[in-house]
Amino acid sequence: MPDTDADTDLAQRVKRLRDEAQGYVDKAFKPNREEALRLYEGRMTPEEEEKRQPGMTRYIAPEVRDAVDDVHANLMRIYTASGRLVRYRPRGREDAAKAKALDKLAAWVLDVQNDGYLVTDDLVMNALKLRYGVLKVSVQAETRERLRLYEGLGEADLSRFEQDAIVKTESHDDGTLNVTVKESEEIAKVRIESIPPEELIWDQDARDLETAAFVAHRCELTVSELLDQGYDADQVHALADKATAGADEAYGYDEESFRTRASDFGGEDEGEDDESQRLIDVTEAYLRVDTKGDGHSELRRVVLAGNDEVLANDPVERIPFAVATPVRIPHALVGYSVTDYFRDQQAVATEVSRQMLNNLYKVNNPRIMASEADLQDGWDSLFDQTPGSPINARPGEVAPFVIPPLIENSLSVLEHLRQKSDRRLGSGQGSGALDPDVLNKQTATAVVAARDAAAIRMEMMARNIAETAFKRLAVLLLDAMAEALDAETIANVLGDEASEFDGAFDQEFDVEVVVGLGTGRDDERMGAIARVAGFQQSVLEAYGPDNPLVSVQQLAHAQRQLLEGAGVRDTDAYIASDQAIAEGLASQQGQDPEAAAAAQEQAKLQAEQQLALQKLQMELESKHQIEMAKIASQERIALAKLQAEREEMSIEAALKAEQVATGQDINPNVTGPVF
To answer: Is the distance from CB of 283 to CB of 217 less than 8 angstroms?
Structure first.
């Protein structure tokens, strides 16, 4: 229960902001989510079911499901094949090794401590289908049990262990005991979870999670889950006693919640006798509050439970959510989905397909035209659909009502819609480029260009999801790892590289996306790295490891990137670490590892200085060539001017000679005689 008036006021403020945010999200996004689920699953609306005539088809075209599944499969291939989606970039050269170690730690947290593939799969599927997917990062305490052997104990030493903790006891001839004990310890664990989109609410003015004024995770947790998160036991049990059936209605259980959180819907009596499984409405809100009265707000985490009682009120650095959206809308937290692209086409394809199927049904089951007199005898036989059964009628007086088939026209319309879907998705261009008839008329370059054009939209979606969700996830992981990972865990994960975190887990790193549009094609990138690796190897073979241009560590780094590009994550199994390489080179040369590292750094500096000198020389030579060209041009102009003056003087001398010879005044500017 709230202990102060400030907590009570804060609870009222959170409740007001929560209700406003819930109303905004329900109005802006809930109808779209419900329709997207219906379209993807191929369910008719109640209105369509009510209007459907008996015998008519319930078919719904799978345009949305096919498009979502196609993009989903392609994006998961991009994300899983790359080995990593983002990477940490150091802000200084001295942190390069630590940034690389952070990449390895983050991958371990995502894939080992958590189900990285499943989390990514849920996030991508929700984003493609429902416009947005949500990840949440938190640090939770976890109890870890392990067996420990104590040797050489006496009988009196057994009293310090709990009886239930002793697993095995072995006696020796000298009276001592070996005791195996099950010990429990509480450790911090980074938890990454994909939460249902309808559980996240935010204020309508939010443009991104970094600057949002209010964001909340509203869900239901059991008494056991709240206790595991460290909340006060008396307060949690009191909330469980106050829980009523009306809380479910207030939370808003509906068809969408049933389909995204089906495990919460058991029988009415489920958990009734087990208090630990009672559900309590919990709102974990993040809002900006001016607690000091100085006009500057701070971000706080406020947890309300049950009847809006405050369970926690703490300052935090970041909102621990990441929201992915495949098609961005500028200045908005949530954009568009693949469902939005294909909603209209599914409606048209469904209507055309239904008409085609209903037409086929009527063609195969025609109505009978007969006069009232003809139907007096043999009425039942007219409606007997058994093949080969006779119809009682006079010849020519009973005939089927012929309905013209429309299948051919319907198929052409459906084919047109399929091609239109391919163009919207981008997949049709690539598949058309690989058609045999097209291949005969195209060059290899044109085929590759068409294939690349087909992948642009999917690469754009891959980049958008990486920028909106995985990039923020990397930042959240950096904070969580600094809080949760101890020295023992870091040493177990990194091995020799753990020395980079000797007492300092700073967070001064940038995050860079390495997948999707704008990051280059994987085959081109791997080809460039392979060419560089070949060049490095040739330099090392020609000049040895002490050359100023390429080091053995740089060659090893190139080889690791080639392995990672091929999908091999455990590169340490094939190539030694940089530290091990430096120590090996130092032992071969009889040098101290630190001295070897200093020598290598000096060699790098010399190589950089040499490159800078070469660049300066090239610039000077270029300037010299420009100046020489200017001088040559000026000389050519002067010579041309001098030649013109000489020709003019020659002409004047000739005119004067003619004037002397003829005794006439000759004007050089007049072509005829002067009168």
So the answer is: yes
Cβ proximity of 286 and 300 under 8 Å: yes
Nearest Cα to Cα of residue 332 among 24, 656, 649: 24
Best-predicted range by mean pLDDT among 48-57, 394-403, 443-452, 500-509?
A: 48-57
- Residue 628: the pLDDT is 77
How far is Cα 492 from Cα 607, in angstroms, rounded to an integer?
36
Angle at 618 between CA 615 and CA 624, to 5 degrees: 145
How large is the greatest C-alpha to C-alpha distance in the chain, in angstroms? 153
Please say whether the beta carbons of 99 and 173 come within 8 A.
Answer: no
From first CA to last CA, the distance across the chain in angstroms is 126
Cβ neighbourhood burial of 600 (10 Å; 0-12, 13-18, 19+):
buried
Q: Which of 246-260, 276-290, 475-489 has the lowest mean pLDDT?
A: 246-260
User: SS3 for 187?
Assistant: strand
Closest CA to 478 of 78, 214, 90: 90
* % helix, strand, coil for the chain, step of 5: 55, 15, 25
Residue type, 485: L
Q: Among 381, 395, 377, 471, which residue's Cα sits nearest to residue 123?
A: 471
